[in-house]
Design goal:
- This protein is mainly alpha-helical.
- The protein has one domain.
- The chain is built from ten helices and no strands.
- Helix 4 packs across helix 5 and helix 5 packs antiparallel against helix 10.
- The N terminus is likely disordered.
- Keywords: Signal.
Length: 232
């Protein structure tokens, strides 16, 4: 089985990238609007009323049905293929959501183009002429490498799916960044150390969310069984 899974993964991702490149139901303008108008999730509660463990539990307790798994992958792959592809797609999408929220709190323009991301060198980052360019390069170096497995057309609907089906992901990111921003209250991001610090917060938060999603995926079969729903 361990030898078969990589074959399934390669085939599924190849099919997904090939078909989604020709998809017409999600245009470039859709991607732009997704970044220009972020969902108004309830992530601005006071720290006393916000419980990150409760939000993480909402992720781990989520059950995704077969139609939902197929919808998440853009309905380009089916059944077991969708489940395998989504293991990698989920990790990428949760990071995209995190970077959307981080850019928003830092006051940087949204990234409306999640195409091929080339990992910049440390020398390129050090040579950045502006603080925003420095951030962009740090973001590219931090994003999970799975982002290059998929066509850009896959991401807008996948992000929209997460915001509707697992809103706790954006809630956690938004609250974490906004709460940190309130504590430090920087008038303007001009210090590279401040960018580095925020990237570190992103990484820590992403790790916890990704860990919760791994538990969700691991428990999904049993969850569907308990609900009496068809599984894979």
């Amino acid at each position: 089985m361990q030898k078969i899974l990589p074959i399934y993964l390669c085939l599924a991702i190849h099919i997904l990238a090939d078909i989604s490149n020709n998809a017409t139901n999600f245009s470039t303008s859709t991607a732009s609007s997704l970044n220009d108008s972020l969902p108004l999730v309830n992530a601005t509660n006071s720290s006393s009323s916000f419980d990150i463990e409760e939000q993480l539990a909402k992720i781990t307790n989520t059950c995704l049905t077969l139609p939902e798994q197929e919808q998440l992958s853009g309905n380009f792959v089916r059944s077991t293929f969708a489940e395998i592809v989504n293991i990698y797609l989920m990790s990428t999408v949760e990071q995209i959501i995190g970077f959307q929220e981080l850019r928003n709190v830092l006051g940087f323009d949204p990234n409306g183009n999640w195409t091929y991301v080339e990992r910049p060198s440390k020398e390129e980052i050090a040579a950045a002429l502006t603080i925003e360019k420095y951030y962009e390069l740090k973001e590219q170096r931090s994003i999970i490498h799975f982002i290059n497995y998929f066509s850009e057309n896959v991401y807008p609907p996948a992000v929209a799916f997460f915001d509707k089906r697992i809103p706790a992901i954006r809630t956690i990111y938004r609250h974490t960044f906004e709460e940190d921003h309130r504590r430090h209250k920087p008038k303007k991001i001009t210090d590279r150390k401040e960018v580095d610090r925020m990237i570190d917060i992103f990484k820590t938060t992403s790790y916890r969310i990704d860990d919760a999603m791994r538990v969700m995926n691991r428990n999904n079969f049993d969850c569907l069984e308990r609900m009496g729903l068809p599984s894979f």
